[in-house]
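User: quick one - fold this with zinc ion bound?
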Amino acid sequence: MSAAAVGEAGARAAQPLHVRGRVLVGPEDVRDELWVVGGRVTYSRPPGAAEAVAVDGWVLPGLVDAHCHVGLDGHGAVDAATAEKQALTDREAGALLLRDAGSPSDTRWIDDRDDLPRIIRAGRHIARTRRYIRNYAYEIEPGDLAAYVRQEARRGDGWVKLVGDWIDRETGDLSACWPRWALDEAMAAAHAEGARVTAHCFAEESLVDLVEAGIDCVEHATGLTEETLPLFAERGVAIVPTLVNIATFPDIALGAEGKFPDYARHMRELHRRRYATVAAAHEAGIQVFTGTDAGGSLAHGLVADEVAELVVAGLPPLAALAAASWSAREWLGRPGLTEGAPADLVVYREDPRADVRVLADPRAVVLRGAVLGGSVAGGSAAGGSAVG
Ligand SMILES: [Zn+2]
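Assistant: Sure. Structure tokens for the protein plus zinc ion:
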């Protein structure tokens, strides 16, 4: 079968797919092959195996971008065509499971599209009045927090997103957005609905109250210190650093310098120690996951860059891979490459354990069993790797 024919045939989920090479089922569980039949993973040779389309390489479960915004850009909600483009860009990058960390758009229609990544939503951001980016959040006062949390817990897919700190224009620096009593009520409300809570936090100040109130995750978490690191580890609070977003802090500081010099200095300091903070979190036993913060000011499709950044920060390559695959899926309650699981996987030309930068160029992206991306789907499989 020619490479072009493979592309055509591979796009049909009905035909069995034979993925050969090194299947990274888990960090310690590596197999020689898997089959995709009826959109699902199996390790038993299926009937019709002789007709199967083959793809060779190193295989990971579909990557996880655990902090991503679909249906959002720098100005607020976007139309469905733009949201679709965002989701397709993530798919091309191999990010097949997205935790949407807050969006004012209703993107529920994406769930009916077999060709788009799976989304776990956190509803719409909940922020303090005039303490977040315009047009993004419900902007409310502490007395209403629990009610909004309950509402968004019911709208989302098991997560609620708070803005935990933001610049306070009166003091001219970052400060916590919510009093402790309101956070206590908010966490109780979310947990009663079966939802977990995460919060955007840049600075140090808000972290103790959030953890003591029972938060499940913190986004960015640049303000972690020797005081709060052990607290996060002890309570099992995960972090999603979004290092590709933290890289923009110097620009934010530059723009704010004239009016808010203390804030600018603070942002630069958080940026300066970002790698040390992430490395210390990992060493303290805190779960660190991959997130790009795409959809605000950042482009979609940056999951490979974020994994590379985690390695630069000091995570061992296997831990950085786990943060974007095996561990992240487990944390979000979604299967990896287990028998019978939906076949959402990515195939690479080289071993991503040896160099995570391999993630930037997938050979094949398989979603719900269909080859939808990478050079195989494009009909240009290099080196004759795909054969019928
Ligand atoms: Zn975000």
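One thing worth noting: The radius of gyration is 21 Å.
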